[in-house]
Amino acid sequence: MNKISVTSKPVKPRHAASLVLYEKRGSEYYVLMGKRAKGHRFLPDVYVFPGGRVDDDDFKAPYSMDLEPHVLTQLSKPGDMARALATAAIRETYEETGLIVGNVAHGQLRADLSPLSYIVRAITPSHNPIRFDARFLMADAKHAKGSLGGSGELVDLRWVTLDHALTMQVVDVTEFVLEEVRDILTEQTSRTSEIPLFTYRNGKAFIRR
Protein backbone atom coordinates (compact mmCIF):
# COMPACT_ATOMS: atom_id res chain seq x y z
CA MET A 1 0.00 0.00 0.00
CA ASN A 2 1.41 3.38 -1.02
CA LYS A 3 1.08 6.43 1.19
CA ILE A 4 0.57 9.96 -0.10
CA SER A 5 3.75 12.03 0.12
CA VAL A 6 3.66 15.29 2.06
CA THR A 7 5.32 18.67 2.05
CA SER A 8 5.41 21.53 4.54
CA LYS A 9 3.44 23.94 2.33
CA PRO A 10 -0.31 23.88 3.08
CA VAL A 11 -2.73 24.39 0.19
CA LYS A 12 -6.50 24.63 -0.04
CA PRO A 13 -8.12 21.36 -1.20
CA ARG A 14 -10.07 21.38 -4.47
CA HIS A 15 -13.48 19.76 -4.71
CA ALA A 16 -13.36 16.45 -6.55
CA ALA A 17 -15.46 13.35 -7.15
CA SER A 18 -14.83 9.72 -8.08
CA LEU A 19 -17.19 7.01 -9.26
CA VAL A 20 -16.95 3.37 -8.23
CA LEU A 21 -18.66 1.30 -10.91
CA TYR A 22 -19.40 -2.25 -9.81
CA GLU A 23 -20.99 -5.33 -11.27
CA LYS A 24 -21.84 -8.77 -9.94
CA ARG A 25 -20.68 -11.87 -11.80
CA GLY A 26 -21.93 -15.01 -10.12
CA SER A 27 -21.09 -14.62 -6.44
CA GLU A 28 -18.24 -12.13 -7.02
CA TYR A 29 -18.37 -8.34 -7.17
CA TYR A 30 -16.08 -6.54 -9.59
CA VAL A 31 -15.07 -2.87 -9.65
CA LEU A 32 -13.56 -0.80 -12.45
CA MET A 33 -10.09 0.58 -11.74
CA GLY A 34 -7.17 1.97 -13.68
CA LYS A 35 -3.53 2.79 -13.02
CA ARG A 36 -2.31 6.37 -13.02
CA ALA A 37 0.79 6.92 -15.15
CA LYS A 38 4.18 7.43 -13.50
CA GLY A 39 4.31 11.00 -14.83
CA HIS A 40 1.31 12.21 -12.83
CA ARG A 41 2.08 14.69 -10.06
CA PHE A 42 -0.75 13.36 -7.89
CA LEU A 43 -0.79 9.65 -6.99
CA PRO A 44 1.52 8.38 -9.76
CA ASP A 45 1.77 4.67 -10.55
CA VAL A 46 -1.14 3.50 -8.34
CA TYR A 47 -4.58 2.08 -9.06
CA VAL A 48 -7.56 4.36 -8.55
CA PHE A 49 -11.21 4.78 -9.45
CA PRO A 50 -12.02 7.17 -12.30
CA GLY A 51 -12.60 10.72 -11.13
CA GLY A 52 -11.22 14.23 -10.89
CA ARG A 53 -11.86 17.77 -9.78
CA VAL A 54 -15.13 19.63 -10.17
CA ASP A 55 -15.15 22.12 -13.06
CA ASP A 56 -17.21 25.31 -13.29
CA ASP A 57 -19.29 23.76 -16.10
CA ASP A 58 -20.38 20.93 -13.78
CA PHE A 59 -22.51 23.40 -11.81
CA LYS A 60 -24.65 24.29 -14.83
CA ALA A 61 -24.58 21.04 -16.80
CA PRO A 62 -28.00 19.55 -17.64
CA TYR A 63 -28.92 16.13 -16.29
CA SER A 64 -31.54 13.64 -17.42
CA MET A 65 -32.54 12.39 -13.95
CA ASP A 66 -31.86 13.79 -10.50
CA LEU A 67 -30.16 12.29 -7.45
CA GLU A 68 -32.26 10.28 -5.02
CA PRO A 69 -33.49 12.62 -2.23
CA HIS A 70 -31.34 11.09 0.53
CA VAL A 71 -28.24 11.21 -1.69
CA LEU A 72 -28.97 14.83 -2.58
CA THR A 73 -29.16 15.65 1.13
CA GLN A 74 -25.99 13.73 2.03
CA LEU A 75 -23.96 15.13 -0.84
CA SER A 76 -24.99 18.71 -0.06
CA LYS A 77 -23.07 18.62 3.22
CA PRO A 78 -21.05 20.79 3.28
CA GLY A 79 -22.14 23.27 0.64
CA ASP A 80 -24.87 23.19 -1.99
CA MET A 81 -22.93 21.43 -4.74
CA ALA A 82 -24.40 17.92 -4.78
CA ARG A 83 -25.34 17.87 -8.48
CA ALA A 84 -22.01 19.40 -9.53
CA LEU A 85 -20.13 16.68 -7.64
CA ALA A 86 -22.28 13.92 -9.11
CA THR A 87 -21.92 15.37 -12.61
CA ALA A 88 -18.14 15.63 -12.20
CA ALA A 89 -17.93 11.97 -11.17
CA ILE A 90 -19.91 10.87 -14.25
CA ARG A 91 -18.08 13.24 -16.61
CA GLU A 92 -14.63 12.18 -15.43
CA THR A 93 -15.61 8.52 -15.65
CA TYR A 94 -16.78 9.03 -19.22
CA GLU A 95 -13.59 10.87 -20.17
CA GLU A 96 -11.26 8.38 -18.51
CA THR A 97 -13.02 5.08 -19.28
CA GLY A 98 -15.42 5.60 -22.19
CA LEU A 99 -18.36 4.48 -20.04
CA ILE A 100 -21.19 6.92 -19.43
CA VAL A 101 -24.03 6.98 -16.92
CA GLY A 102 -26.41 9.08 -18.99
CA ASN A 103 -25.97 10.09 -22.62
CA VAL A 104 -24.32 12.61 -24.95
CA ALA A 105 -26.48 14.59 -27.37
CA HIS A 106 -25.01 17.15 -29.79
CA GLY A 107 -21.75 17.07 -27.87
CA GLN A 108 -23.45 17.81 -24.54
CA LEU A 109 -23.25 15.38 -21.64
CA ARG A 110 -26.57 14.75 -19.90
CA ALA A 111 -25.73 12.75 -16.83
CA ASP A 112 -28.18 10.38 -15.18
CA LEU A 113 -27.60 11.10 -11.49
CA SER A 114 -30.32 8.77 -10.18
CA PRO A 115 -28.26 5.53 -9.81
CA LEU A 116 -25.53 7.16 -7.72
CA SER A 117 -24.98 6.50 -4.03
CA TYR A 118 -22.60 8.52 -1.85
CA ILE A 119 -20.25 6.37 0.22
CA VAL A 120 -17.09 8.17 1.41
CA ARG A 121 -15.64 11.65 1.75
CA ALA A 122 -11.85 12.00 1.87
CA ILE A 123 -9.55 14.99 2.35
CA THR A 124 -5.90 14.86 1.33
CA PRO A 125 -3.34 15.56 4.10
CA SER A 126 -2.87 19.25 4.91
CA HIS A 127 0.78 19.29 3.89
CA ASN A 128 0.36 17.59 0.53
CA PRO A 129 1.33 19.89 -2.40
CA ILE A 130 -1.85 18.86 -4.27
CA ARG A 131 -4.99 18.48 -2.18
CA PHE A 132 -8.54 17.35 -2.85
CA ASP A 133 -11.77 17.28 -0.89
CA ALA A 134 -13.06 14.20 -2.65
CA ARG A 135 -16.45 12.51 -2.59
CA PHE A 136 -16.65 8.88 -3.62
CA LEU A 137 -19.87 7.72 -5.24
CA MET A 138 -20.89 4.30 -6.54
CA ALA A 139 -23.27 2.88 -9.12
CA ASP A 140 -24.17 -0.46 -10.63
CA ALA A 141 -22.45 -0.78 -14.01
CA LYS A 142 -25.77 -1.85 -15.57
CA HIS A 143 -26.53 1.87 -15.76
CA ALA A 144 -23.36 2.61 -17.78
CA LYS A 145 -23.10 2.49 -21.56
CA GLY A 146 -20.15 2.43 -23.94
CA SER A 147 -16.91 0.52 -24.42
CA LEU A 148 -13.80 0.68 -22.25
CA GLY A 149 -11.29 3.12 -23.69
CA GLY A 150 -11.29 6.72 -22.61
CA SER A 151 -8.62 9.39 -22.73
CA GLY A 152 -5.68 7.20 -21.75
CA GLU A 153 -5.21 9.02 -18.45
CA LEU A 154 -5.75 5.68 -16.72
CA VAL A 155 -3.66 2.78 -18.01
CA ASP A 156 -4.36 -0.91 -17.41
CA LEU A 157 -8.05 -0.10 -17.14
CA ARG A 158 -9.88 -3.24 -16.04
CA TRP A 159 -12.54 -4.93 -13.93
CA VAL A 160 -11.16 -6.63 -10.83
CA THR A 161 -12.74 -8.46 -7.92
CA LEU A 162 -12.90 -6.60 -4.64
CA ASP A 163 -10.56 -9.10 -3.02
CA HIS A 164 -8.00 -8.74 -5.79
CA ALA A 165 -8.29 -4.95 -5.79
CA LEU A 166 -7.22 -4.91 -2.13
CA THR A 167 -3.95 -6.65 -3.09
CA MET A 168 -3.10 -4.13 -5.83
CA GLN A 169 -0.93 -1.03 -5.63
CA VAL A 170 -3.38 1.36 -3.95
CA VAL A 171 -3.15 4.22 -1.47
CA ASP A 172 -4.73 4.04 1.97
CA VAL A 173 -7.88 5.99 1.06
CA THR A 174 -8.56 3.71 -1.92
CA GLU A 175 -8.17 0.70 0.33
CA PHE A 176 -10.69 2.22 2.73
CA VAL A 177 -13.18 2.91 -0.07
CA LEU A 178 -12.85 -0.68 -1.31
CA GLU A 179 -13.62 -1.97 2.18
CA GLU A 180 -16.67 0.32 2.42
CA VAL A 181 -17.90 -0.86 -0.99
CA ARG A 182 -17.53 -4.48 0.10
CA ASP A 183 -19.49 -3.81 3.30
CA ILE A 184 -22.26 -2.03 1.40
CA LEU A 185 -22.58 -4.71 -1.28
CA THR A 186 -22.64 -7.49 1.31
CA GLU A 187 -25.22 -5.47 3.31
CA GLN A 188 -23.01 -4.99 6.35
CA THR A 189 -23.39 -1.22 5.99
CA SER A 190 -26.47 0.77 4.96
CA ARG A 191 -26.23 3.13 1.98
CA THR A 192 -28.29 5.64 3.95
CA SER A 193 -26.03 5.63 7.02
CA GLU A 194 -23.73 8.50 7.98
CA ILE A 195 -20.97 9.12 5.42
CA PRO A 196 -17.49 8.37 6.81
CA LEU A 197 -14.79 11.01 6.46
CA PHE A 198 -11.29 9.71 5.73
CA THR A 199 -8.71 12.33 6.63
CA TYR A 200 -5.44 12.72 8.51
CA ARG A 201 -4.53 13.82 12.02
CA ASN A 202 -0.93 14.30 13.15
CA GLY A 203 0.28 12.64 9.98
CA LYS A 204 -1.81 9.50 10.44
CA ALA A 205 -5.01 8.35 8.75
CA PHE A 206 -8.09 9.26 10.77
CA ILE A 207 -11.65 8.07 10.08
CA ARG A 208 -14.63 9.95 11.44
CA ARG A 209 -18.09 8.40 11.20
**What is the ordering of alpha helices and beta strands?**
EEEEEHHEEEEEHHEE
Sheet having the most strands:
9 strands, mixed
Task: Give the C-alpha Rg.
Answer: 16 Å
Distance between the termini: 23 Å
Please identify which CATH superfamily we are dealing with. Answer: Nucleoside Triphosphate Pyrophosphohydrolase
CATH fold descriptor: Nucleoside Triphosphate Pyrophosphohydrolase
Just name the CATH architecture. Answer: Alpha-Beta Complex
Proportion of residues in extended strands: 25-35%
What percent of the residues sit in helical stretches (DSSP H or I)? 10-25%
Q: Average pLDDT, to the nearest integer?
A: 91
Tally the helices.
Answer: 4
Put the structure in a nutshell.
By secondary structure, the chain is an alpha+beta fold. The chain has a single domain (14-208), classed as Nucleoside Triphosphate Pyrophosphohydrolase, CATH 3.90.79. It has helices at residues 69-75, 82-97, 162-165, 172-185; strands at 14-25, 28-36, 47-48, 51-53, 63-65, 102-105, 108-112, 117-123, 132-140, 154-161, 197-201, 204-208.
Descriptive report:
The protein has helices spanning 69-75, 82-97, 162-165, 172-185, and strands spanning 14-25, 28-36, 47-48, 51-53, 63-65, 102-105, 108-112, 117-123, 132-140, 154-161, 197-201, 204-208. With 209 residues, the chain is of the alpha+beta class. The protein has one domain (14-208): Alpha-Beta Complex (Nucleoside Triphosphate Pyrophosphohydrolase), CATH 3.90.79. The strands form two sheets. Strands 1, 2, 3, 4, 8, 9, 10, 11 and 12 form a nine-stranded mixed beta sheet that branches. Strands 5-7-6 form a three-stranded mixed beta sheet, covered by helices on one side. The two termini are 23 Å apart.
